[in-house]
Amino acid sequence: MESITLFVAIVIIVFGVLQIILFFKIWKTTNEVSQVKSMLSEYVSRKDVVDWKRRFCIMIAAGRKDEAKLLLFNNIVNSLSFKNVVISTNPEYRNNGINEINQRYSIYLKSLGLSVSDIDFDNPVYKEVIK
């Protein structure tokens, strides 16, 4: 009788250890799923970046500069840098954000005959949109 009890106890201990191992493996898998999801969202956002740039080039080539300007400003206003510039009260941080926007979009602005200084970052409408 004692050998059966010992056998059952060993089996229960083995199953307990295996359940603990399984718990941590499932936990690790859920973290990996989060990483995959984040990588996919980055891929989709990169694809959107390529798409708007491609559409911008097509509009410029077709002579539709007004539509290209609308597409460019739509992308600028939706960028994190623009949001940071609009809500920033620190002049140094704000200037860094404007420089970042200038670096990222200067080639597109120049193709339209514009510069980053043509954007009125103090327009109160922007703050309403960002809220």
Give an account of the 3D structure.
The protein is mainly alpha-helical and 131 residues long. Helices cover 83% and strands 0% of the residues. The chain is built from 5 helices and no strands. α1 packs antiparallel against α2 and α3 packs across α4 (91-111). The mean pLDDT is 83.
What are the key terms here?
single chain; 83% helix
Structural class by secondary-structure content: mainly alpha
**Rough outline:** elongated
The tally of helices reads 5
Q: What average pLDDT do the residues reach?
A: 83
User: What portion of the residues fall into strands of 2 or more residues?
Assistant: under 5%
How many strand segments?
0
Terminal Cα separation, in Å? 73 Å
The description of the largest β-sheet is: none
Q: Please trace the helix and strand order, writing H or E for each element.
A: HHHHH
Q: Report the C-alpha radius of gyration, rounded.
A: 28 Å
Query: In terms of per-residue confidence, which ranges show pLDDT below 50 for 5 or more consecutive residues?
Result: none
Specify the helix fraction band.
over 70%
